[in-house]
Amino acid sequence: MHTLVIVSHPNIDRSNTQSFFRDAVSGLADVRWIHLDAATSTDQWPKQEDLQWANRIIFQFPLYWYSAPASLWAWLDELWIKGVVYDENGGLLTGKTLGLVVNSGQAAATFRMGGSNGRPLDDFLTPFAAIAKRTGMTMLPTLTVPQFDRMNEDARLLLLINYEQYLTLADPDDRSQQSDWFAAQLQAHGDGLLASTVQDVEAELDNLQQTVAELRQGEAD
């Protein structure tokens, strides 16, 4: 799968979050990580052929006043136009997926009913869902990163795993695909025994699920 990561951040050199993500993709094949604000002119921004190359497009940004920074909207205004991403017959990016990686300095608990922001984070990101629908894309669940600088090492390791899976798996939430990903990572690092163990555990869980399903079916009958 080809993944195009579009990063919008006006002060990226001061962002620990984006530095973390930039390092995370350095070893990933078929992932292009492009920082819009680093371009000296709009001519250097991703073009139509980049959109066509990608199977998955990621918009990655810090939450600025409940939306994305200006460079992302400027790029969308420049390229995401009729004849490029949609026409009178519908979306021209059908079959592709769109994902959002959004970091915030506020705690996750603030984005809920009764929290200081009063609404879930996805409520503020609905324009992107509309963009996906208009262009024929399938929207992925948002990958949110609240208060990165307060994360401990274990939390950052989990974020690294989730981020790489978000960029590379057809369905990042599918347990079997996650298991295969872990097995591939272990094999790549020379630990075939652990990889085999992961696969064995996955198979055993599938067998247990099948047994439970059959028992429930028997109760229903």
From TrEMBL:
Full protein name: NAD(P)H-dependent oxidoreductase
Domain of life: Bacteria
Classification via Pfam families: Flavodoxin_2 (PF02525)
Keywords from the UniProt entry: Oxidoreductase
Organism from which the protein derives: Lacticaseibacillus pabuli
InterPro entries found in the cross-reference section: Flavodoxin_fold, Flavoprotein-like_sf, KefG/KefF
Domain Flavodoxin-like fold, chain residue ranges per copy: 1-153
